[in-house]
Amino acid sequence: MILLDTHVWVWWVNESSMAGSGMQRIIHENQGTGLGVSIISCWEVAKLVERGRLELTMPVERWIEQALTYPGIELLQLTPRIAEESTQLPGEFHRDPADQMLVATARVYDIPLLTADSKLLAYPHVKMAG
Predict the structure, then answer these.
(1) What's the pLDDT at 115?
(2) Beta bridge partners of 76
(3) Are residues 78 and 42 in contact, defined by beta-carbon separation less than 8 angstroms?
(4) Other Cβ atoms within 10 Å of 55 Cβ, number
(5) What sign does the dihedral 29-81-63-99 (CA atoms) show?
(6) Into how many domains does the chain fold?
(7) pLDDT exceeds cutoff 90 at 121
(8) Average pLDDT over residues 24-30
(9) How far is the C-alpha of 58 from the C-alpha of 77, rounded, in Å?
(10) Are 26 and 114 in contact (CB under 8 A)?
(11) What is the pTM for the complete model shown?
């Protein structure tokens, strides 16, 4: 299983050209073993729509419901351990709470994260998919 960063999940579901062929290949290769989506990504999508930073072709509730049914998707719940880990990440980490939760989720589940976020790619204390 791999964990999809929120933007990767959105790009894949919306068939955006932002999800380059390398990301699409990694997603396809991991569909059989699981594509994790953190519940925090559902919140993040809803917040992006609320703030006008993401436009969807349908109401956010319906988009999330449909996006969670894509092949291989597994919704990963937040747990007390993930909440704790998000506040104790080793080394330097930026202050974005959603990113902290995503990295903590990948670390607790011991799965690689698929992202295009340069801040996350530069963080040495989480496995990256690819």
Answers:
(1) 96
(2) 38
(3) no
(4) 8
(5) negative
(6) 1
(7) yes
(8) 94
(9) 24
(10) yes
(11) 0.95
| pLDDT tier for residue 23 given thresholds of 50, 70 and 90 | very high
Which helix (H) or strand (E) segment holds residue 16: the answer is none
Within-domain flag for 126: no
Quick: pLDDT tens for 45-88.
Answer: 999 999 999 999 999 999 999 999 999 999 999 999 999 999 99
Please indicate, yes or no, if residue 92 is contained in any of the structural domains.
yes
Contact 123, 93 (CB under 8 A): yes
The strand pairing partners of 3, in sequence order, are: 36, 113
Q: How far is it, in rounded angstroms, from Cα 70 to Cα 4?
A: 13
Q: pLDDT band at 16, cuts 50/70/90?
A: confident
Domain of 31 in residue numbering reads as 2-121
What CATH number is given to the structural domain containing 112? 3.40.50.1010
By CB atoms closer than 10 A (0-12, 13-18, 19+), residue 58 is: exposed
- Is 36 a domain residue? yes
116 contacts: CB under 8 Å, gap ≥ 6: 5, 7, 8, 18, 23
Which residues, 6+ apart, have CB-to-CB distance to 10 below 8 Å?
Answer: 16, 45, 54, 67
